[in-house]
Amino acid sequence: MLLLGKIGLGFLGTALVAGAVVSSEGFIHVKVHEKQTNGTYISLVVPAMIVPVTLKFVPNHYLADASTNVRRYLPVIDAAISGLADCPDGTLVEVTDGDQHASVVKSGGSIVVDVDDPDETVHVSVPLHATQSAIDEIASAGGGPI
Amino acid sequence: MKTILPVLAVLCMGTVALAGPPERYLHVKVDDPAGREHVRVNIPLSLAEKVLPAINQGQLRDGKVDIGDFHANGVDLKMLFEAVKSAPDGEFVTVQEPDTDVRVAKSNGKMIVHVIDKEGKEKVDVTIPWEVAQALASSGDKQLNVEAAIQALERAGDTTLVTVTDNSQTVRVWIDSRNTSD
To answer: What is the DSSP string of chain B?
Structure first.
């Protein structure tokens, strides 16, 4: 009985540590709601760590073009992500055009994009740290020094 | 109790001192009431300061814009700015044409440019703190030092930099320490 308890505690500890590691880079949240009758409603929350880890399993030749393009702008992307991470939370861009509204907000280490128009609403929240990891992963897929 | 209060006061003062200056923002606000179009941009100056030197594209390199085609005809822009800075406030240039009025003046440590396009019914007001104008011209007569200008803007007080008004749109660019445009 004591052994079973120890095993259970081990599993619980492992699950807790795994959960902490997986959620360490935050979560990507994508929500799409089509406003028409029977319109699609999707709400997806995935650990941001999955993106760079998944990219490791993508064969390099699929990422070669993306890698070339990303490398060209890597210094700017790095500076922008680091600058965004350091700056306080707030609305960066807000556009209203008639009945369409879009905003880009920095909130708690994530960039949140919201679009609301008569047909649909879209909400995307991406942690900056995960974005940096994913960009680095794509850049390194091209091979050679970055 | 008597000893705790001074300690708390010192801690509070220390926290305030360590907090540093508040973040400064560059705001852009475009309103087109007829087209029901509104744009608000709030860029932290610290972000612009970090990103700008990383951009090496076209004429923008290392935070400086190359204006090689600009002919200063041997005029030392730095010296010119120094001379104008020490000059008393007043109007330096006034051009009045049938369709355009242009006025360049210095007032309260700021360079002010007013342009009125009578045909297009457009009015442009540009106000640049002298320190910013000097920083912009600090890399000689072939480059505009945008990075230095942003650093100078961070030290400048709250001010409206540009307003453009025409028949349908108003545009305002300003800096302050608030993270919203309204």
So the answer is: -TTHHHHHHHHHHHHHHHH-SPPPEEEEEEEETTTTEEEEEEEEHHHHHHHGGG--BTTEETTEEE-TT---TT--HHHHHHHHHHSPSEEEEEEE-SSEEEEEEEETTEEEEEEEETTTTEEEEEEEEHHHHHHHTTT-TTEEEHHHHHHHHHHS-SEEEEEEE-SS-EEEEEEES-SS--
